Give the backbone structure.
Amino acid sequence: MGTRVVLLPGDCIGPEVAAQARRVLDALPIELEVDERPFGAGALRETGEALPDETLVACRDADAVLKAPIGHPDFDGASVRPEQGLMKLRSELDVYANLRPAAQGDIDLLIVRELVSGIYYGASGTREDGTVFDTCEYHPSEVERVARQAFAIARTRGSKLASVDKANVLETSRMWRRVVTEVSAEFEDVELEHILVDNAAMQLVQFPQRFDVMVCDNMFGDILSDEAAAITGGLGVAASASLGDSGPGIFEPVHGSAPDIAGQGIANPAAMLRTVSLMLAHGLDEHEQAEAVDRAVTTALERAPTPDLGGTATTAQFGDAVIEALS
Ligand code: NAD
Ligand code: IPM
Ligand code: MN
């Protein structure tokens, strides 16, 4: 069987940026089957499930999953939301290491976000007295595996790892710090620093050049990766790769479905296309094609910037510029 990618076009600007990803994949000189499946708000409306079983099975069987953003204001406040489908997909594929690179000028950092545990997956609910709770739980093995990935990646880059936590307050963070320190014994060539999350948020804005790889729990990584995107060109250009130990990775932009600009044809597809590049490199072992797409996106950012970057290009015109730069 040939290489198969499941494409999840998602919601709001999702299908707009996914269409450009499809065009670019079709333009590459490689054999690739692209299998589009329902997921997110559209799927929830049609089938009652944000992640229909058929979609999950197709994802499991694929070589890689390319996912556009999901989420729709119609479900704000609803008890079943499209985002739950995304949480389930990540968990089912056990893609625990979410790589979120952010680079511009002399800034070149990579956030490794733990993706399938922590407060986003802990017990939650409402007690009889009306108290609402979300709990943050980590098993040491969950910290160990993501830390090991982060150290291994740091070794291939600047050999510096900043581990982000809130060890001055949280029990989970104290365990996180202990386990990361233990894992560091296997990576003596990597310089390890522990940094409290509030300080990390400040330094990321003030001295972003000092960071190489940052490893964070699920929630800290979610927040700091939007911040890292903001200092390196914005959410419109920030891509991510979510990887496990085996099975397909999930490749998705850092940004959401941007309902505020949906339907206008002005969404920046650069994040989605850089995500295609990450998929080619980390998911399909197509390193040459990955570099070609990355270079073409960089060229298009100069020639056809979209409104979020101060330009006037439409989503499709940005796609045109990428295709042109590829040929
Ligand atoms: P968002 O990332 O969708 O948008 C934040 C701001 O950035 C908006 O002003 C938006 O217009 C802008 N923006 C984002 N991507 C852009 C792009 N490609 N081009 C130009 N501008 C862009 O965040 P939000 O508004 O908080 O969330 C909207 C929905 O997306 C919610 O339902 C949320 O749950 C969902 N979401 C999904 C994912 C995902 O699927 N991985 C990620 C984040 C948020
Ligand atoms: C992201 C998003 C998701 C997350 C939401 C939509 C579940 O914010 O991918 O960063 O929190 O992981
Ligand atoms: Mn987020």
About this structure: The pocket of nicotinamide-adenine-dinucleotide (ligand 1) is lined by residues 69-71, 83, 86, 235-236, 252, 255-261, 267-268, 271, 308 (CB under 6 Å).
